[in-house]
Amino acid sequence: MTYPLGWSVIRQILIRRERWPGGYKTRGTALVHPGQEVQPDQPVIHLERLDLADTITEFPRLASPTPPYAGQSADYSGVQGSIRTNSQLISGLVPAGLRGRVINITHRGGVIIESRAAIIQGALGAGNQVAGILTAWNAASWFQEPGAILSNRPLEADASRPFLPGAILVVPGPLNFAMLLQAMSFRVAGIVASSISSRDLSDFLRTDLIALLNSIDIELAQEHLPPVTLLFTEGLGTVAMPARTINLLSRYQGSMALLSGATSIRQSIFPELIISLSVKEVQQNWRPVQPDPALTIGSLVRVCSGIHEGVIGEIDHLFIYQQTFAAGVRGRAARLRLEDGSTLVMPLTLLERIG
Amino acid sequence: MYTETYLGEGQSTTGSHSPATASSILVADCGTVFTKVSLLGLVEGQYRLMARGEAPTTVAPPYQDISKGIIQAINEVEFITGRHFVDNGRIISPEQPTGDGIDLFVATISAGGPMRLIVLGAVNSKLEELTAQAVSGLYAETYPLPAPSYLATTTQDTLTVGTVAKGSSNLGKQGQETSERKDLEWQRQLERVRELRPHAALIVGTTDNPAGPKPLQEACQLVINAVQELNKYQYGSAPARGDQNNASSRQLPVLYAGAPQFVEAVRRMLDGYTEVTRVETLVSQEQLGPTSVAATALYERDVIQRVPGYNHILSWSKTVPIATVSSLSSLVRFLAQHYTMNVTAVDVGGTTTTVMMAGEHSEFIPLVNTGVGVGPGLDNILKKAGPQRVARWLPFNITEDELQQYVLNRMLHPQVIPASLRDLQIGQAFAREAIILTVEAARNHHFGQFDADLILATGGVLAHAPKFGQAALILLDALQPRGVTSMVLDRTMLISQLGAVATVAPIAAVQVNENDAVMHRLGTCVIPYGDLPQGQVAIRVGIEYNSGRQVTAEVMSGSIETIPLRINEQALLTLYPAPTVDVGLGPGERARAAEEIDGGLVGLVIDARGRPLVFPTDETQRHARLLQWMQVVGA
To answer: The whole model's pTM is what?
Structure first.
C-alpha cells in the first residue's frame, strides 16, 4: 500500500481533518466558528441522533444480500453489560481531539481543523473517529521489550496510569481476541497495536472483514461495529511494532490524540492516529516534513509482505536489471542495508517508504 | 452482443507529426494496480516494442494523479533507453533529432473503478439479464432495484417475507401489510442507493405488467429522492428544482429505456433534478446496442474523465484516453477478422477479469467481470467461487483462514509479487477461478460454447508467470477449451493497448502485435472430448515434423501429455480419437490438419483429461494428480 500521506510515521506535518465522529444517523451542531483556535479537549460539536430510517434495519431486507454481520457469533461473555455498536453510542458533546484552528464547518456539522501534528498511519483499522488520552499498556515494561509477543498476557493497567474510560490504549505488539474483549470491558475508546490475526479481528468486529474493507460506504459499513476504534500499524499477522513507532507513541503518552480506524480499500482510506504538537514544541522545533513515497537510494523502507514482513532498512542499491526471486518471479529490486549491518535484496513492489 | 468501436477523435495538443507517420509512440495503460508504459519505435522500417516500464498506479492518495504513475513508468523506459521523454512533468513531443521525445502518446485506462448503475422500474429477471448484457463489455456493475409496486404485484412470496410470516393470522390485513411493506421496500431502496452511491440510473420496463405505469413513476421518484439525498449529504442541501447549472444536479444521470409513450412524462418528472437520455426501449437482445452505447458514453464521461489527473494526460495526447477494455475489444475483433479465426482473449487484472470471444463471422462476445480479479478483486472470487473451489487447484492442504488471510493481504498490498512458491500457486489458483467465473457469467448470459482457434492471454498474473507451462495450464484448466487450439501469451501486456494505438497508427498496431505482443506462442493444444473411455487410450496422435521425422503418441484418458514441438518447428498432425471421442469432427472421426501446426514454448499439448475436469475426491490423490499435470507441462 501507499500511505495516503506518503509515510507511515510523520513526526511533524500540517494537516487538516474533519472532526466528525461518524454515522449517517447523526447530525452535528458546531460549537465553534471558522478562524477560532481550539484545544484538544474542547467540545466542538454537539451531536444528535436522527431517527431517519431507524426502524428499517429491524426488518429483514426484502431483496438485499444478508447484512455482513449476520451469522457471525462472537463470544462476548467476558464483557460486562450489553454490547453497544458505534451507531448506538454516538451522541453528546464531541471534543476537538486536535489543537489548532477551525477552517470550516461541513454541512453535517463536522468541524475542519488545521493542526500541526505528528501522525501514525496504520495498515488496517476499524471504527469511527474518536479522541482520547494515549495510554500505554503496562507502561513500566513495554519499552524495555518492544515488539514482544504479548498475546498470552492479560492487559494490565500501570498503577500510576490506570486505563481511563475513553482512553486510547497503546499496545506495542500483536493483539488478540481476548485482549480486545478486555480492553472493551475497560471502555477504552480506541486501541493502537501492531497487528492481529484476521480471525480474531473478524470475530471481534462480528463482520466479514473483507466486505468491510471493500465496502463502498465505509461510514455505513461501520455502523454496527463494536464501539472501540482500532488501528494496526503493521496489519494482519503477528508482526511487531517498529521501534520508531513505539518511540513516537511513548513520547506522546498522556497526550490527547485523534484516532480514526476507517479503512476502505475502494476509497484508499487508511486508519490514522493524529497527535497535535504542543504550543511549545511548535514554537521551538517546527520542522514540517513533506513525505515523498518514491523509492530512491537512501530511503528508509519497510518490507510489507512475505517472510521478511516488518523488516526495516535503508536502500543502498537499486538494481538496473530485474532480479529473480524465490517463486521464480522476476521484478525490479533494491538492496537494503538493515540495522544490524546485513543486507537484503527485495523486490521494489514489496517495499514501502517510511522515511 | 455489441460494443461500440472506438473511433479515436483527435485532440491535437502536442507535436505536429501525423499519427500515421509517427516514428516513436509511447503507450500507457493505467490499470487499477499497475501502470504500464511501452515505447514503440521504427526498427529497420518495422514498428517494434523497444522498451517497457511499469510503476504502481497513482490514482489514490498521496498522489491522486494518474499522470504521476505514468511518469514513473516512463522514467523506467528512459532508464532503459537512455533517452528522455519527460521534461518538467510534460511529454516531450515531437521526437527530437537527439532521439529524445516521442511523436505520439496514447493512453488507455482501467483505473477509476467500475460504473455503478442502478436499474429501476418494472425490472423482471429478463430485463435484469438484458441490462447486465448491455454493460457486459464495460467496467460496470448493475444493481437492480425493482419498483415497490412492481414487486408487490409480481412477487407475492418476496413481499410476505418480513414482519408477517406467510400463513399468519394477519393475512386478512394483507392490503395494509402490502402497503406497509411497500413503504419499507421504498425506504430500503433509498438506503441501498445511499450505500451504493451509483454513477447513473437506467429506467426500464414497459407498462404491460400488473402495476401498469406505476413502476416508471416510482423509478422517477426514487431518482428524485436519491438525488436530493445524495446532494443533502454531499452538499448540505437539496438543490432547488430547476437548478440545472448546479453540478450536483448531474449526480445521477438517467438512461431511459422504458415504455416509449412515457418518455416525455419521465422527462417532466425529472426536469430540474437530473438529465435524462432516451435510448431505445429495452425488451430484447435487439435493443442491447443503443443501451450499451449510451452506457459507454456515461462511463467515459462520469468515470474515466473523472479519474484524477485525466486532464493532465489529455494534454499530452493527440487522442482521448479510452477504456482499456474498449481497446482490447477492437484488437480482438480485428484479429478474428484479419486471420479469419475464432479468437478468445483473456485478461486477468487486479479488479477485473475479461474474456472476449470474437468469431471470424463478426460474432463478438465481450464479458468484463467487474470486481473479479487477482488484486483488490480477490474477495469477489472467494465469495463467488468459495474456498473449496479455489483450494482444489492447489497441490497442498490449505485452510479457509489462510485463504482469507491471503485475500486480505493482497487487497491491502495488491502490488506485491509472490514471495514463495506457495504464494505463487495460491495466486494462480485464484486466477483460474477468476477466468472460470467469467466464463460462467458468459454462459449465464446464454452465450453458448465457443471453440477458439486461438487463445490470447494477458494480464499480470499470466504475463509474469515464471514458467510458460504455468500460464498454459491456467488457461487449459480455466477455459477448458475443446478440439484443436493454439495459445499465445502476451508477456508484454501490450495487446490491450494496441486497439487504441490502431485508431491513430494502425500500421504500428499491426506490426507490433505480430512482432512483439504475440511472440510468446505457448503451443498448439489438442483437446479430445466426449465420452473418454476410462483406463484406455483416448487419442492417438501422429506427428510428422518438418524435418521428416515421424512420431506417434498415444494418450490415455484422464491424462495430459506434451510432445516436443519447439518454437520455429512445424509439424503435420493426424488425430485418431477413440470411437466415442471427438476432436471437433464428430465422435471417432479421424482428423488430419490441412496445414502444418506451429510449435511453441510448451510444445504440443494433448489434454485428454476430459471435459469438465474431474478431481479425485481423495486429497492425497488430488495433490498427486495436480503435481503430475504440472510436471508434464513444465509448470
So the answer is: 0.84
